[in-house]
Specification:
It is a single chain. The chain is mainly alpha-helical and 64 residues long.
Length: 64
């Protein structure tokens, strides 16, 4: 299946966690340090996904 790999799942879950933390940090009064931690986690998700894919935990493009 397209994108069904440990690298993809890890990236998506990390991104969702980061977005959730960032969103909750803005309710009811903005907690800016916590918001930026959420942003950092969401951005780090892409890096972690790429590193995991490069380490062989992604979907091989030749299969599709």
């Amino acid at each position: 299946m397209h994108g069904s790999s440990p690298a993809a799942w890890t990236g998506v879950i990390m991104c969702l966690v980061g977005i959730t933390i960032g969103g909750v940090a803005l309710i009811p009064d903005p907690n800016w340090p916590l918001f930026w931690i959420g942003v950092a986690i969401a951005l780090l998700a892409g890096v972690v996904g790429r590193v995991m894919a490069a380490a062989g935990m992604g979907v091989d493009r030749a299969e599709h």
